[in-house]
Write a structure and sequence with these properties.
The chain has 313 residues and is an alpha/beta fold. The chain has one domain: Inosine-uridine Nucleoside N-ribohydrolase, Chain A (Alpha-Beta Complex). 36% of the residues lie in helices and 17% in strands. It is globular, with a radius of gyration of 18 Å.
């Protein structure tokens, strides 16, 4: 029998691990559909030195070795504010990670991403699950590269309410100027906003299933998520939202979400609305759609993909 060889989708993960980033990284590394060319880090959930060590440890835990390149330590313009309530001081809910068994790549994140775009013209997707500072940096320094990126899948923003302010979602709020550069760059964007990722959630039953899966990685995920659940419980929310894993799941299987195309811009000033992704749902501005936005999801399909991938380690 002749087996058809299907090319894997080449991706770079730009992230700030981060409890849910960690799960998204595990999913990508476990997936047969994806080839992870490297991971780039950005200050977000915690500082860039810590998220870089976390990324190295997470990859090591999977028994893999791929480039991990350090990125931006601060947003383009705003002062960075440490936010440890959700992900803890070490970014992974205080859970101890093993010592990484390799070191950071010597290339800076933006140099690595540029090199990969040039080597894989129109055959590379960037999966951005942290603040968009690195991606904006590339698009500002080398605007011509916008034509060679196949697409940016990003977890961020909200059509409705935010999570860090009533208006804004964390990743966009953290660096709204960077987000504005990305949304106005012309690169095809697939956006997974809070409106859907809040519904990509798991509760106690799935937590028990995760623990019972056995294996080092599912148990590690369970420990991190237990801390994450404490934060949600404190807010009176029973299920925990897996924001970044949902975006990663849709890279693997786009059918897990349904989409609408809208024009979206980012509020960069505004004391109350900084970082709001202003979504032209009714076509009021007359501006052409620049983003494919996930508006609904197949939650069962998502959870089953997540669990299949975590069980495969
Ligand atoms: C986003 O912010 C971070 O806390 C998560 O990792 C996710 O990327 C959700 O608003
Ligand atoms: Ca993140």
């Amino acid at each position: 029998m002749v087996r058809r060889v299907v090319d894997k989708r080449k991706i770079i993960i730009d992230c700030d691990p981060g409890i849910d980033d960690a799960l998204a990284i595990f999913m990508a590394l476990a997936s047969d559909e994806l080839e992870v060319l490297g991971i780039t880090t950005v200050a977000g959930n915690v500082n860039v030195a810590q998220v870089s060590v976390n990324a190295l440890s997470l990859v090591s835990l999977c028994g893999k070795r791929i480039p991990v390149c350090r990125g931006a330590a601060k947003p383009l313009i705003h002062t960075r504010r440490e936010e440890t309530r959700v992900h803890g001081v070490n970014g992974v809910g205080g859970v101890r990670l093993p010592e990484p068994d390799f070191g950071e790549d010597t290339r800076l994140a933006i140099d690595f991403i540029r090199e990969m775009i040039e080597l894989n013209k129109n055959n590379l997707d960037i999966i951005a699950i942290g603040p968009l500072t690195n991606i904006a940096g590339i698009l500002l320094a080398f605007p011509e590269l916008a034509r060679s990126i196949r697409s940016i899948f990003l977890m961020g923003g909200a059509v409705g309410p935010g999570n860090v302010t009533p208006a804004a979602e964390f990743n966009i709020f953290a660096d709204p100027h960077a987000a504005a550069v990305v949304f106005n760059s012309g690169v095809p964007i697939m956006m997974y906003p809070l409106d859907v990722t809040n519904r990509a959630s798991i509760g106690e039953i799935q937590m028990a299933e995760l623990w019972n899966m056995g294996g080092e990685i599912p148990k590690f995920c369970h420990r991190m998520l237990a801390k994450y659940a404490d934060f949600y419980r404190g807010k009176g929310i029973a299920e925990i939202a897996l924001h970044d894993p949902f975006a990663m799941a849709c890279v693997i299987d786009e059918g897990l979400a349904t989409y609408k195309e809208y024009h979206i811009d980012v509020e960069i000033s505004g004391g109350l609305t900084r970082g709001k992704t202003i979504t032209d749902v009714d076509g009021i501005t007359g501006n052409r759609a620049n983003v494919k936005v996930a508006v609904d999801l197949d939650k069962k399909g998502f959870v089953s993909l997540l669990f299949r991938l975590l069980a495969s380690f």
